[in-house]
Request: fold
Amino acid sequence: MAVNDSLAALSDSAFTLSIVTYSVGVVGFAGEYAFGRRGRIARTSSEQTVGAAGGDTVTTTSVGSSTGQRLGVFGLACTVLGAALQLASLVLRGIAAGRVPWGNMFEFASGVVLVTVLSFLWLVWHAPRLRHLGVFVLIPVVFVLVYAGLTLYAEAAPLVAALRSYWLVIHVAAAIAATGVFLLSFVVTVLYLVRQRYERGVLEDGAMPRPVAALGPRLPAAAELDRLAYRTVAFAFPIWTFAVIAGAIWAEAAWGRFWGWDPKETWALIAWLVYACYLHARATAGWKGVKAARINLLGFFAMTFNFLIVNMVISGLHSYSGLT
Amino acid sequence: MTETIQRLSTAPEPVGPLRRSAGPLVVVRRWWRLLTSMRTALVLLFLLAVAAVPGSLLPQRSLNQSKVSQYYAEHPDLAPVLDRLSLFDVFSSPWFAAIYLLLFISLIGCVLPRTRMHVRAMRQPPPPVPSRLDRLPQSASFEHDLSPSAVADAATAALRSGRWRVVRRQSGTRGETVELSAEKGYLREIGNLAFHSALVALLFGLAFGKLSGYEGSILVEEGAGFCNSFQQYDTYRNGPLAGAGDLTPLCADLERFSVEYEDNLIPARFLADISYTRELGGPVSAYPLAVNSPLRTDGVRLYLTGHGFSPRFTITYPDGESFTDISAPFIPEEQSTLASTGAVKLPDRPGGAAEEQLAIEGFFVPTAADLGDSRLVSVDPRPLNPAVAIVVYQGSIGLDSGAPQNVFRLDQRQIDRGVLERVGAGNLLVGQSLGLPDGTEIRFEGYKQWAALQLSHDPGQLTVLVASVVMLLGLLCSLVVRRRRVWLRCRPEHPGVDGATSSRTVVDVGGLARVDAGGFSSEFAALVGQFSGKRSGRD
Reply:
């Protein structure tokens, strides 16, 4: 099956354009953040109180400035456009190579952040007040895409024989979906830790690091972020479980055993165990809150390690990076 | 309030403070409770994740023995220490087993009492209506034209159609107040318990498969075959419960092997056409064995795991005696061009001296490029212009010495000792010959393809698969389903008036769901709408 070069080139252009669009979106969201704060100083914004731990209240400001709001909507529009471009890039690549567009690390990374962006958009659809968090979602997205474009890029090419199985469609799609949502959970958890530190600082009336003081006031309440981080993991965890099971079923057909402690399998299990730890920790007295949040971060560290280090440094059966 | 919340969960009670003086039974009980506490499970879970890390970073014997040897060569001081800590066999090491066995004991110790409690909870009717419904996280109040019992009837019907468990109680001096307690979401805990029980089943399936399963690998040339017995395999591994007599009778022949390539020479499809039979002289079936498409028959699976070339030679001795079809599998050094190395060890000639054995060490390329010098380079994995570079030795190969030999290489010690002497070398295209000083001729005839086949038997596989599916379903239930309760108190607006039919009814509704139960407030609002007749209009 020959690769359609013009479609592949078009796909690459769409990919580059999506990075540009997301970057413009970052500027928009950052502007919303900045103008929102100015609005707070001018006391033009309405204030709402949010219950925090121990019955104390922490004041948070909602977006009040209309300039900020407009910038936020602009940022959101850029996000939607960027996602559309990225989707187009993946679809074109799939058509060009005559296969599903998740056959190497470049396509995997692109798919992962697309899932992250789409789940963020879904979140904003249901809770528009979370829109201004877009800046924190888009910055890692742009970072991953630039990294993927520079380091992981692989030409659109047909798959090697070992990957020609319908299990590729199922197993890798599930892995991409789970990783994308885990990435969103990671972002939310970092925000939770910042906000948590901020709330503690406010309650104790003590000093706090400058970034915390700068970012903290406009973030949603820590309890809400914590809940969001949990729900995203609770959503992604069964998908990840399914991805691992589907991988085992495929391995049984391709490699003669369903589990063989290949480094990729091992790290998939490690990540699974860490996220299982997180889900349990959130229900265990003494582990809730910051400790559980750190386990969540660790879980995503395991996912990243599994993707980057295991594919590129450790040799194993999953050496399909497309890198030479 | 707090009591109600706690009773929604069947989690075991936290471990109490340890008392100092206690009998042995109390000590055992205490350790048991410590082991089965969530906190211990959490630590064990985390330990298991950490313990798996070295297994992915250090070479493992189960994956690649030669990499372990290489590690030994590179770190001669460190390797024995690591080996003593089982770090080259992490996943079969005692300490790894200790962690997961403790974890599973802890898990069983947690699941059993929770199952008992949940069965009890499912038998018990939903608890009575709390006195202050307005203090619950969700509460509402409305008035209705119908009598309390009619309102309660309608509400019961609405709840039952939503598959709530409903219990009706009456209170007040003459029973004029009707109270409903409803509960839903038992599936959450059932799913949770199913998930954890399935994990245990999965471990048993895994262990059973390892104990009674076996696996053998063999290289088979086109036209040759093998039967399922340990003696025939190049390498095999069997569990302690799998004896030689338990092997499923199966014989398979490799009829033809072929590879299809894409334009850029990446392999698109490997195909081994095999014929097999399950009993000697029985019916022969054909199967196109391919990657991702193993042959499954009678509980055994046959896989295609690799391929390569066997160069073919004809040897003609000075006395005119010739041996045709002498070949040996060569191992690909480079997957992209399939340049391969190997050795051909010729058998004794009838009547020939043991010191006159011939051996060929060679380098095979499927498509030779003409570089002008004497070096052979492969430029294509397809056999378009096969060539071989050979070095011929004569003397004692050392096969009868009893020491095990690598079939793909000559024994270097024999060469060093001088008992195996180099007598010729050359590059040959198909049809070309190399003459030795004693007049012997070695003619390169071409090649045969070989396929690496693996036969596996794992009787625990189905258990593991079923357990995984139950695990996933249980996980979904335990994460999606919410356990929640709704209470209604329907009392007459003017209690004490006889014949309350004319009186209106005041309805108080309260709802409670576990923490993290998003969406319960909207569900509650919808229920209240139904009760008050705003949406269903039932009366």
